[in-house]
Structures are given as C-alpha cells and as structure tokens.
Amino acid sequence: IAATQPSTNWHLKENAREHHTSKFSGEELIVRRGQAFTITFNGTERPEQNLIFIAETGPKPSKATKTLATFDISSTVSKEGWSAVLQSTSSNSVSISISSPHNAVIGRYRLSVQKGSSSPASLGTFVLLFNPWSSGDDVFMPSKAECEEYVLEEFGIIFAGNKNHISSFGWNFGQYQGDILDICLSIMDRSLYYRQDPVTDVSHRHDPRYLGRVLSAMVNANDDQGVVLGNWSGKYEGGKNPSSWTGSGEILQSWKKSGFKPVKYGQCWVFAAVLTTVLRCLGIPTRTITNFSSAHDADGNLRVDEFYDADGNHLEKGADSVWNFHVWNESWFTRNDLGPSYSGWQVLDATPQEQSGGIYQCGPASRHAIKEGEVDLDFDSTFVFAEVNADCMYWNYDSATGKKNLIFSKSTEIGASISTKAVGRDDRVDVTSDYKYEEGSTKERDVFKKARKKLGLEDKFDPTAPKLEEIEQKPDISGKFKVAGSLEVGKDLNLLLVLENLRSDAKTVNVNMTAWSTLYTRRRVNQIWKDSISVTLAPKEEKQFPIKIKYPEYQQQITTDKTIQITALCHVEDGLQVLVKRNITLDNPAIDIQVLGEAKVNKEVVVEVAFTNPIDTEVKDCVLQVEGSDLLQGILELRIPPLKANETSSTKFKLIPSEAGPKHLLVNFSCDKFADIKTFKMVKVIN
Hints:
Blueprint lengths: L7 E2 L2 H8 L9 E4 L3 E7 L8 E6 L11 E7 L8 E7 L3 E7 L7 E9 L5 E9 L14 H9 L2 E8 L2 E8 L7 H9 L3 H5 L1 H6 L4 H11 L9 E3 L17 H10 L5 E4 L1 H15 L3 E11 L6 E6 L5 E2 L5 E13 L10 E5 L16 E2 H5 L9 H9 L1 E8 L4 E8 L5 E6 L6 E3 L1 H4 L6 H13 L13 H5 L4 E7 L9 E9 L5 E12 L5 E14 L4 E8 L1 H5 L7 E10 L4 E9 L5 E6 L2 E2 L4 E8 L9 E6 L8 E5 L7 E8 L5 E10 L6 E10 L1
Parallel strand pairs: 2-9, 5-6, 12-13, 15-20, 32-38
Antiparallel strand pairs: 1-3, 3-7, 4-5, 4-8, 6-7, 8-9, 10-11, 14-17, 14-22, 15-16, 17-18, 18-19, 20-21, 22-23, 24-25, 25-28, 26-27, 26-29, 29-30, 31-33, 33-36, 34-35, 34-37, 37-38
Helix pairs in contact: 7-8
EC number: 2.3.2.13
Protein name: protein-glutamine gamma-glutamyltransferase
Cofactor: Ca(2+)
C-alpha cells in the first residue's frame, strides 16, 4: 500500500438499503451485524496478495474480549468470526465484501488494512448495530411487519388515564433524526459499568440482555447522571413539566448540549419513551407497555397496603402505592441464560422506583416468567410480578392510637388493561393475557401462590394479615361511585354515590366524603371538596346521592395530570366500615388538525390547527408546539393571542416533508387554564 491514505468508498446508499439503515442521515456507514457490506478502496496493487483487515472497537481492543478482529481475504464467509471476500479489482482499486459475526460487539468500529509487513492504513470508521432481520442474531424477529414497527417506526402511541377511562397520546421517538445515534453511543460510554471497567463493559455489548439492563439505568438520572431526572412532586420549576414533552429528540439533544446534565423532568412514560428511542436506534425491537392500576410493592411481599383516616382521606403512610397507570418497555431477544421458553418479550423499566443490584435499573424480566410466577428468575421478576399481580389491602388508620383495622382486601384490583400500540395501525392492543392468567381463575391464584412460595412468604406468620373471622364477616352495605355526564376540564363534575343495603333490616350509615386532586401516581396534592351525610337504608334498599363539584372549585387545585380521587368512608352502625373510592381522569378539550392540500416530498404544505376555548373566561399564554419526524426539523413553537370565552383560534403553518410514506404530526397546545392538550395526525406524504 502506498504511504498515502487510501480513499474509501463506503457505498452508503446500497449498504444502507441492504441493512435497513436508510433512515439514518450522515456520511458514516451504519450496518447491522451478521450481514455482509461492500466497500471499495484504492491505492493497492495486486490486492489479493496478503491483505489483512483490522476491525476494532472500544478503548483497548483485544481478540480475547472480541473487540479486535484481524482477517484476510478468503473465498467464503466465515461462520464464526469476521471475514472478507474479494468482489472485484481494477488497476488501482479493490471491492471487498466484509461480514461480521452474528454475535459481534455493537458500536463504532475503526477499520484499517495492512499489506504484508507495512504498517496498517486507516480506511475510516463505521457503526455496527443489532440485526433483527437476521436469524442468527439474539434479537431476530421473524415477522417483517414487527421489525418495521418495533425498530424502524419513529412514531408511537402511549396509553394513559385509568382503567375505567383509557386515553392516549402520540410520541415522536425520532431514533433516526440528526445525531441521535451518536448520543445513544455516548449514553453507553457514560454508564457506571463503563466507568468502572471500560474493557469488560464494551466486551459485553454483543448481548441485548446486558445492554437493556445498562440502558434502563442510564435513561434515569439516579446514580449515574443519566438522561432524565424524575419528578413526582407536582411542582416542576427549573425544568419542563413531564407532560409537556412530545418526543425523545428534544430530551436527548438537551442532555448532550448541556454537557450531559440530566434533563428536567420526567415521569414514567418519558423514561419508557426515551428508552424505546435508544433501543430501537441500536436495533433492539422495543415497544412501550402501559399497565393500569399498577402496584409499586416496595417491600416485596406481593401486597400493597393503603391507609385511610376516619374522614376517608387517603394517607401517605408506608412505601407501597398503586398508580393509575405505569409505562415500561418490552424488548425482544433470546434468553440463553434461562432457556428457550423464556425468550421473546422482556420487560425493562427505566423509571427509578426501586434499586436492583444497588442502582436504579430494572430488567430484563422475561414476560413468560412473569405469567408463570417464576419470580426467582433474573432480573427483577418479583418487582414486575407485583406490578401486575399484587393483592390490595385497605386499612383504616387512627393516627392518635396507631391502630389499624382492615376495611377489605382485593385480589383483582391490580394489573388491568395492559396496553400497547398495534403493529402498523394507530390502535390499542390489550396484552393482559400475556402477563397473567384470567383474573380470578384457579390458574391465576395458583400462579400467585407459587410466587409467594418461591419468595418464602407462604409459611411466614404475617402479623398484619387479617384474622379468619374478620374475613368471614361480610359488610352490610355496598357502594360505588357512578359518573353522570362528561368528564372534561372546564366543566362541572357530576357523580352519583350509590349505596345498597345488603341486609334484610334497616341500616344507618354515616358517610364522610373527600375529593383530592392527585398525580397519576395517586399522590394527593390539594383537597378540592369534602362533605358528610347521614343516611338510613331500608332493607335491601339502593339509594343514589348526587355529588356536584363545580369547575371553579377544582380549577385552581387540579394538577396537569387532571386526576381526582374521590372517597367515601361509610361507617355503618354496629357493622363493618365500607370504603368506596374512585379515581377520575378528566379529558382536555379537543384540538383539531387539518392538512390543507397534498403533502409531497420537498414541497411546502399548509397545516391548520384549531382550538375553541370551552370556558366562559378568557384564556391566555397560549403556545402551540409542533413536531414530527420527516415532516419538519426540530420543534416549531408558535405563540397564540389570548382567546375570549368560546372563541376559536385558527393557526396556520407550513411543513416541508423530507420523506415519502405515512408520517405523524404531533401537536401540543397549552395556555393558562389548560395544560398540554395533545393530538396527532397521520400525514400521507407522496413523492
């Protein structure tokens, strides 16, 4: 090889097409492991003679750690390691097809070539990713449609609200935009694992299990100055309200721009969405999962305890909690450590809830292991099992005496309507039956007992467990809250408390009712309303008591999560107490998007967004945020003049789509009275 640096043609377009990496922009070759790519370089005579290629990654490449490979030209692709096959030669250039093994370490590689005893000449760098299209890869996904959705798709839908009222919003994962890949590579190089032992860390990067766990720790800021700082206080000064984000790109870019300082602030869906972006970017098929009535079992006894005072106020006592919903991730890969039946979808959770191995990371837990109650299998299966299966115990707690009485327990409360986005459609799919057997079935209870047994809970005397005679005693009345009318921010809230006497003699009941604004984690923020009534129920009688909470009563108190918990603690004379509760999520008013005309690649198209102020006072500080991969660069922010009562604003802006296909435009509207009204629109872009 001449002393001059050989110039390399990386055949970016052709290689990207073959490797499903066309959506990345930039001048660097990005390919997937276990599959050949072609390069051409010049400055060689008679190249077939003793050319040696060197591919290396990480700080101290070595053959022992599989971060260094040297290979010469052979006639066939190697089954085991790296190989180079001669494609064609001309007088001064040579085309080579290079293949990496199915289990190669992923990341940025330096490639050089050496002829004979001369010193190696650098050909440049390329990035190697996981390959879900290749049957030898740990992340191989047989369905092409699923590969499209879980690796290539940049738009997602996240489900929220509560189990009685599921809502959803769009998210721009944006894993192929700008320098997101570079940011993902720097996330790996900033983990605690890398800082403690860079050589070993890089050598483990062939394994999706390892990287999934490391990245679940790095997406939250705890322990390692990771990407997003969590905040569940209801006060978000000094940062952005978690519900105001519409995509991961802005978060990852801010993290990098600030010199890798944690971005403020996130809650569960933000952690899950950012982890989806990072894992899809690296080639691991990943999706977000929402679990409704999700248990946070802090003490690992598969039980969550909730405490209420005599007025029915939900007390913050004990570390257990039940969230209206919780969002985590599933990633698809084999579990060679557990055996074939545990392969497939694995649960990863980047929300910092409990420590695992001394730091805030969670998973991968095999979804199959969760369903079968195999809580002893790696990693964090007990915690995930409890999130979807824990039993609920409701206690009346007297702070003066420290005494607690069990009001009732429920084994069917937790883990409802587990949801994810459909493949190729903007719909919800229910995956509850992949996490557990039918609620209340013998099989489901057997699995629960098996889990308790594995955790050594079944023989232990439990001093807080209700005595048998307490369980046998049945309540005299039953109660429930019914919604009457719409649940919308800006409108009065109408409910009915329905009480029924289950006995054949009359009952007198004193009812203490409270309503609190909460976060989606059911953490109380402000008391909105309280009332008490005394009622007499004739034998077997059912009575309804209307409750009205006016908009001005809750407007100042409600959080941006738009959630209210209403409880009625019923003290039955000479009988058991009965707790009636309901968590309510209010809807925001609607916002409308219209695309005016055809959307064509590299042509301007006008979009109109309309919002009607539904309340009888002016709204001000109106801001519209718009984003969408391949439709516009970054985020468009538009200020909108104040809107009088019932006035409609119409805002127009232009897009220049950069790629054909179905694309999604995400809109977020905020003002002083309504926070983060979100909607999205699918835009069909044609060439």
